[in-house]
Amino acid sequence: MKSKFTWIFTLLLAFFIQFAFAQEKTVTGTVTDPTGMSIPGVNVKVVGGSGQSVQTDFDGNFSIQVSVNQKLEFSFVSMKTQIVTVGASGKYNVQLQPSDLDEVVVEAFRTTTRATSNVAVTTITAKTIEGRPNANFIQTLQGQVPGLNITTGSGQPGANSTVILRGYGSVNGNVEPLYVIDGMPLNVDNFRSLNPNDIESLSVLKDAGATSIYGNRGANGVIVVKTKKGSFESPLRIKYLGTTSFTRLQDNKYNKMNSRQLLSLENRAGKGLGATLTQDEINNYATDTDWYDQIFRTGHSQNHVLSLTSGGKNLSSFTSIGYFDQEGVVAKTSLQRFNFRNNMNGKSNNGKFDYSTAVTINYSKRSEASNLGTGAVNINPLVGANNGAPYLSPDMYTNGLDLYNQYTGTGFGSGTLLLSPLMLMDILKTGTNEFNELKMLSNFQANYKLTDDLTLGTTFAADYTQNVGLRVQDPRSFNSYVFRNSGEDYLGFQTESLAQDFSANINTRLNYNHTFGENHNIDASLFTEYYKSHFKSFSATQNGLNPKVFVPGNGAGYIGFNSDTSPFYVPDVSSSKITAGLFSYFGSVNYSYADRFGLGLTARRDASYRFSETNRWGTFWSVDARWNIDREKFMEGSVFNMLKLRGSYGTTGNQNISGQSIYNLPNGSRTLFASGSGYANLPAYVVGQLGNSDLKWETIAQGDIGVDFEVFDSKLRGTVDVYRKTTKDLYQTSPLSAINGQFSQFANNGSLRNSGVELLVSYDVIKTTDFTLTVTGNGSYNKNEFVKLPTGSVDNGTAINVVGGQLNQYYVIPYVGVNPATGNLLFRNAEGGLTETPDNGDRRMTGKSYVPKYQGGFGFDANYKGFYLTAQFSYVQDVWRFDTDLDGLQNPASIGVQNKSTDLDRAWTPDNRYTDIPSLGFTNKGFDFSSDRYLRDASYVRLRYTSIGYTFPAKTLAKTPFAGLKAYFQAENLYTWTKWRGWDAESPRSEDAYQYPTPKIFSVGLEVQL
Known about the structure:
The chain is mostly beta strands and 1010 residues long. The protein contains eleven helices and 52 strands. Keywords: Cell outer membrane, Membrane, Signal, Transmembrane, Transmembrane beta strand, Transport.
């Protein structure tokens, strides 16, 4: 009987095993994007059960073992994750949709999803950055991220941008975010050496829950950059991206005069060449030079990127080579850049060990204009472009010596600034201002799973930058002759400089990640981090060069130095060496319950080299939480696909309390002495800096409440955040008695607050197989005010900081207009009356500042059967600046030596008493420098970017060697709506004077995949 039972049991067991195997089968398919193009490297994973996963091959195909009713999860960077339930069919073709608000969210040292993130973070993908004709990827982000204000105040190729996140958090210290590229924290960087096309994703971390884990460096937010990598078990993929661009000067509204207009004005004023000309001579004057054409040009740019991606079972690789060449709109300005990057990822057969390496080598060479932003009429080329008299001919210039003879002679224009455009032609032809930069970034990461739940990891990252500069004033140039000393035979100078900056960051971590039961998950990590940075620079200037043998940059033409050499030719030599460092230990704990609730805690201790031992350590912390309301039963059947409430509060620190660089103020706690003059002007050592051993970190406390939502089948998606950020222990000067040898001392004394609201929305207006249309928009409001100051207010001349007021609000005399009785300027005094002779006591707080209150962007993406059109607008509102360029063009004092605006044609006369332009001979010009006469609204709306192109469908390319093909046209800074009259309303400055304007850029491009 027992034997019979055993036989029956065995038969039933075999039957069930056979049934189970019959239910498991091989499923195949192809994964494509909305255009029908195959997507290699998509991760296809069995949900639950074995957890088996594969990746799609080069053609987007996959094959995987799975049972009926099990689910397959398809995931890929920048695409929405899709889940398919396996039924009777053996083939599943899946089309992944782009994720505008990416589901994958990078939070400092961990990666999560949008639904399970507790913090305020905005993610930008490669789609936004790739193919844009910008040397700096930061410039592509303007108007894309709510609360992120990016201003590029210079069109110089490779110029830096100013980046402010959620308002200014410091008065004298660093105000820009920390950048982390593949695990390497970087100080403020111009990023001209980083190839934007290598970037896979960029995450902007905003609130304390996201940034406090960076402690002393997270005060102003954090921007985490991840570069591209290869996929395992993926064949070789080759991609080429090329663009050709043309740059043009933006328009301005200064209404500059032509020759006849200027000569007529000079005739009326009795000044300059026009003073003695008859009207017929003026009408027949032939020369009419547009100095814009002599100083500016249409620049040509090209960008070529070749990338190779491949992967085997345990090793994958991404390699890119790039060449970027951009001509600036100012003559002789340019940037050339060469890039090489290799990112490798590896893993062991058992999956316990994985590692990655990232190496990038970048070399750039740039040529810059000199003395931008100054009124140097013989050096800054923008002065000549703006102020050059049109009746001068560029043919008047032949060489520096001839121009010097004109200037010192008795002929036309001698001894005046009238010849300044010719001086600037000379410096453009003879001057050299070049910089060569070598930048290398490397990163090594490794992780080992000690158990299924416990992982030990380490990251070593290094950043090396070398800058070599060359500045030459040619011995045959005009400036060399005009500034020659008596008895000086050899003129000109050459300055060569070398700066080396090396930083290393070592991070070691232990992570515990475990799920208890079905609903409880703990993700906890402990870290130690060590950062060290070294800077060294050297500069040598050779005064006096032999023009017969001089060649810029190679040392030829130097004057030999010995005991008989004239002191004129003694070289000037300088050097510096600075070290900075940090040591930190910190930890984080994240708890999740059934993907409905989440709680996060972080704490960090930092030690900085900058402060004395008593204040060396700083402690920073945060707590954050979320509630996924859409997961609750009472939300079943609602229009919400996602509804999440989150909040955070915590602190971060700022150790860069003096300027942007980590190297500034290395000895602020020490009293330093310098050589100077003492009693009876005798040589002596004097107090150069009065140390303060109580100096410490600036601490930022920030609270944030946010809502993330998706409704109507996720057609409408968005985020709303409300925040308050308060900086305590502001680094500022405090007054001292002169008995201390100094009138002031730096101390932590003050508090500054930023409060604001941010909104980000995206809506799929149309979404069919052939046609998609998505509109997006974002906006932010930020209020900035002082809570505490050492003396209640700080007067900075035309700006003032006062408790209750915003940062650097303008403090000026109210300008009323032109006095109809006299033609002079008219101002309002402190008593409310009118006066032509105000004083500083008549200044008033305006509530206006160059720090904007409103900013954001909006746009749309349309795609019809492979044809696409994209447009992005950005806007900034309630921002004010002084227009010093306009002041110069309206100033009648320089009639006869500089060009003017046609605004002066409506100047006050006895027959034209009611006007906005004073008389040509008005006598109180100096008072308008401290008034709001030239304070202008610089708000704008700009068509930042537009692109139109065609992506060839996969079926069209089926019989070609191409896996993908796209052609497009795009334009940047195409049009700006603004009241600002200058070249560019976008600027981080409080005033504009002879700055390098940002250009319009028109490009055609081609993207090819093999």
